[in-house]
Amino acid sequence: MLEVNGLRVAYGGIQAVRGITFHVREGEMVALIGANGAGKSSTLRALARLLDPAGGNVRYRGQEIQTLPAHRLVEQGIALVPEGRGVFPRMSCLENLRMGAYSRNDRREVDNDLDHVLGHFPRLKERAQQLAGTLSGGEQQMLAIGRALMSRPKLLLLDEPSMGLAPIMVQKIFQVIRDIAAEGMTILLVEQNAKLALEVSQRGYVMESGQITVSDESSRLLADPKVRAAYLGE
């Protein structure tokens, strides 16, 4: 579904992503792990066209997309859940969710999808009229994921969904991510909690200093002594 070849991202003279190549097959969850500053979030932002790549080629379902504007990617089925959630704080929970469907015209299906999303996140249903800025961090993360799902994506880009959350809320968020994946959603997951990311994904890539240094099935990465020492705290 997604083919990335030689992707480069730069901030002025600083190379954040140094020509990485990877792919995501339809229906699988792929984890991109690494330390802070490795280039993981820059990669997702470039794929979602929130950053202009400095070079490389990105193909989505066979079509080159590295020059398309972000809103066109949403229309074609790519949704980003950004690092830090990015909810609209002065809008209600329900209004935030409906904003996720701004590019859609199928109102009846939007209503059906809203019911489906609220089924995944009962807490959001309880807080439907509450301002998003007054939600807890975990509830805002639920809202950000739900908003992305309202665009009815084929490829979901998740950027650090566990960041800043209490352990019990991390468990709830990742259970929903598992459920979404089980429904057939294709997911590219950036996550600093390497153990958790590798436990829920089929394959993984390790990024260091803007480059992919290791790639393998997630189960093998979990058993790799070097990965365990560097990223799993062992």
Short description:
The protein is an alpha/beta fold and 234 residues long. It is built from 10 helices and 10 strands.
Search tags:
single chain; about 230 residues; alpha/beta; 6-stranded mixed sheet; 4-stranded antiparallel sheet; about 40% helix; globular
Q: What would your notes on this structure say?
A:
The strands form 2 sheets. A 6-stranded mixed beta sheet has the order 6-7-8-3-9-10, with helices on both faces. With 234 residues, the chain is an alpha/beta fold. The model has no long low-confidence stretch (mean pLDDT 94). Helix 7 (167-182) links the parallel strand 7 (155-159) and strand 8 (186-190). It has helices at 40-47, 70-76, 93-99, 107-120, 122-126, 137-149, 167-182, 194-200, 218-223, 225-231; strands at 2-11, 14-24, 29-34, 55-60, 63-64, 78-81, 155-159, 186-190, 203-208, 211-217. It is globular.
